[in-house]
Design goal:
single chain, 2 domains, 478 residues, binds manganese (II) ion, eight-stranded mixed sheet, binds adenosine-5'-triphosphate, alpha+beta, OB fold (Dihydrolipoamide Acetyltransferase, E2P)
C-alpha cells in the first residue's frame, strides 16, 4: 500500500504524543535547512516538519524547494516554536516530485490575483485560492444537502438543447457540420437537417423549461449544472460558462418561492460559516487588507464575517419594482444626477440602481417583485394589473442580482397569448405547453448563479477568481 497518509487538517487536531505518522504534500517554504512548511491542500495551516541538522546530505537538502512533493514519515511532537501546537520530527523524507526553483512560477510571496489568473493551473497552491475552492466545494455540498433534506429530486437537465429558454439568450451553437462548406438549402441558408441532431442545437442557457416538466410530476426538483451564455459582457460578474442552481416547485406561488430562496441562501451560508470557519476567516483577513488600500468612502462598513452573520440574522427586504423605482426617483443620487442610466417606471434596472438599493438604501439583501411584463420572460405569470408579472430578483450587496425567479404562467390561454406577443414559437415548445394541457398547477422556481454566491461568501471581487477555469470572451486557456 502506498497511501497510508494522514491529512494535515486531521493531524492538527491530534494531541502530540510521539505517534508515528506519514504525511504527504507540497513544500511551501524551507527555512535554515531545518524547517519545512508542508501543505497538502486540506487546510491553509502548514505542517512544520523538522529535519535534524546533519540528517540529510546537501544534495538532498537542495531538492527541498517550493512546491516539491514530499512523503514524510516521522513522529508527532509538541512544537518548540510558537504558532503551532505540534510538529513532525522527520525520520524519513522521500521526494516524490522535484520542483525546479528556477522555473517554478510562484514565489513564496504575495502575488496579484491578475497574475495568478495567468497561472490558473497552479493557483490552487496559494492560500487565497485554496480557501476559495474549499468554500466552493462546501457550498455545492450544502446545496445538495438543503434540497435533499426537503425532499427535492435532483434532475439532470440536458446540456445540449434545441430551445432557448430565455427567448433572448445568446447561445453557443453545437454542430458537426463543416464550417467551410456546410450543406445549404436552395435559398442559401444552412441545412441543419444534415447536422448531427437533424436540427440546429445549442448549449443550454438554463435548465428551467425542462425543470418545469420535472416539477409537474415530482412536485419539487432542482438542477445544478453548467449553463452557457455567449454574451459579450466583460464584467466582473459574468462568465460564458457558469453553474446554476434551479429549483422548480409545483404548488408554489411567488411568496412561497421567495421564502424558499431566502431560506436556501441562509442555509448554505450558515453551512460554510460552521464548516469552513478557518477559510472564511482567512479570506476576511485578506479582504480587510485589500480594503485598507481603498479610500475611506469605498470601504465596506462590515467585515466579511460580520456581513455573512448579518445576512443570516436579518430578513431580506421585500419590495415591488414600482416601490424600487420610487425609491430611486426620491434618492439623493438621482437628484444629484449620479445615475448614468435612466430611471423611470418600465426600464430594466441597471447594476448602478440595484447596488444603490442594496448598498446605500437598505444595506441588506433585497427581493424585488412584480416587474413590468415587457422586460421579463414569456413564462412569468401575468398579474391582475395586466402590466406586471410575478417575478422576483434577489439583489445582494457587492454583487447585484444573485437570483432571478418567478411564479410561472400556468394558464394555457394566457401563456399562448404572451408567447404570440413576444414572438416565441409555440410549435417548438409543444412539449412545454403540454404541462399546461394536462394537469396544470400553480408553480414557481428560481435560478441562483452559483459563482455569484461564491463571490458573495468569499468576499472575492472578480467572478474569474471563484471558478477553477474561467471561460470569458477571448479566454479559454487551461
Ligand atoms: P444579469 O442581469 O446579471 O446578466 P440575468 O438577468 O441574465 O442576470 P438570469 O437569466 O435570471 O440572469 O439567470 C439567473 C442567475 O444566473 C442570475 O441571477 C445570476 O446569478 C446568474 N447569471 C446570469 N448570467 C450569468 C453569467 N453570465 N455569469 C454568471 N452568472 C450569471
Ligand atoms: Mn444577463
Amino acid at each position: 500500500m502506498f497511501n497510508n497518509r494522514v491529512k494535515i487538517s486531521h493531524l492538527l487536531t491530534w494531541e502530540p504524543a510521539q505517534q508515528e505518522v506519514t504525511v504527504m504534500g507540497w513544500v511551501r517554504t524551507f527555512r535554515n535547512n531545518q524547517f519545512i512548511a508542508l501543505n497538502d491542500g486540506s487546510t491553509n495551516t502548514n505542517l512544520q516538519v523538522v529535519v535534524e541538522l546533519g540528517q540529510l546530505d546537501d544534495a538532498f537538502l537542495k531538492r527541498i524547494t517550493t512546491s516539491a512533493a514530499l512523503k514524510v514519515t516521522g513522529t508527532v511532537i509538541p512544537s518548540q516554536g510558537k504558532g503551532q501546537k505540534l510538529e513532525i520530527k522527520a525520520a524519513a523524507i522521500e521526494i516524490l516530485g522535484d520542483s525546479d526553483p528556477e522555473k517554478y512560477p510562484l514565489q513564496p510571496k504575495k502575488h496579484s490575483l491578475e497574475f495568478l489568473r495567468e497561472k490558473a493551473h497552479l493557483r490552487f497552491r496559494t492560500n487565497t485560492f485554496a480557501s476559495v475552492f474549499r468554500i466552493r466545494h462546501s457550498l455545492a455540498f450544502a446545496v445538495h444537502q438543503f434540497f435533499n433534506e426537503r425532499g427535492f429530486l435532483y434532475l439532470h437537465t440536458p446540456i445540449i438543447t434545441a430551445s432557448d429558454a430565455e427567448g433572448a439568450g445568446e447561445m453557443f451553437r453545437v454542430t458537426t457540420l463543416p464550417f467551410d462548406h456546410p450543406p445549404r438549402l436552395e435559398d442559401g441558408s444552412i441545412n441543419f437537417k444534415e447536422d448531427f441532431f437533424g436540427r440546429s442545437t445549442n448549449l443550454t442557457v438554463s435548465g428551467q423549461l425542462e425543470g418545469e416538466l420535472g416539477a409537474t410530476a415530482f412536485g419539487d426538483i432542482y438542477t445544478f449544472g453548467p449553463t452557457f451564455r455567449a454574451e459579450n459582457s466583460n464584467t466582473t460578474r459574468h462568465l460564458a460558462e457558469f453553474w446554476m442552481i434551479e429549483p422548480e416547485m409545483a404548488f408554489y406561488d411567488l411568496e412561497d418561492n421567495m421564502n424558499l430562496a431566502e431560506a436556501f441562501i441562509k442555509y448554505i451560508i450558515g453551512y460554510v460559516m460552521k464548516h469552513n470557519r478557518e477559510d472564511i476567516e482567512f479570506l476576511a483577513g485578506r479582504l480587510a487588507e485589500e480594503e485598507k488600500q481603498l479610500p475611506a468612502d469605498k470601504r465596506s462598513e462590515l467585515g466579511l464575517v460580520e456581513k455573512l452573520e448579518f445576512v443570516l440574522n436579518n430578513d431580506f427586504e421585500r419590495i415591488t419594482y414600482t416601490e424600487a423605482i420610487d425609491i430611486l426617483l426620491q434618492s439623493p443620487a438621482y437628484k444629484k444626477k449620479k445615475f448614468q442610466y435612466e430611471v423611470k417606471w418600465g426600464v430594466d434596472m441597471q447594476s448602478e440602481h440595484e447596488r444603490y438599493l442594496v448598498e446605500k438604501h437598505f444595506k441588506k439583501p433585497v427581493i424585488v417583485t412584480n416587474y413590468p411584463k415587457d422586460i421579463k420572460s414569456f413564462y412569468m405569470r401575468l398579474n391582475e394589473d395586466n402590466k406586471t408579472v410575478a417575478a422576483m430578483d434577489i439583489l445582494a450587496p457587492g454583487i447585484g442580482e444573485i437570483v432571478g425567479g418567478s411564479q410561472r404562467e400556468e394558464r394555457l390561454d394566457v401563456l399562448e397569448a404572451r408567447m404570440k406577443d413576444m414572438g416565441i414559437p409555440a410549435d417548438e415548445l409543444w412539449w412545454y405547453l403540454d404541462t399546461r394541457r394536462f394537469g396544470t398547477v400553480p408553480h414557481a422556481g428560481f435560478g441562483l448563479g452559483f459563482e455569484r454566491m461564491v463571490l458573495f461568501v468569499t468576499g472575492m471581487s472578480n467572478i474569474r477568481d471563484v471558478i477553477a477555469f474561467p471561460r470569458t470572451p477571448k479566454s479559454a486557456e487551461f
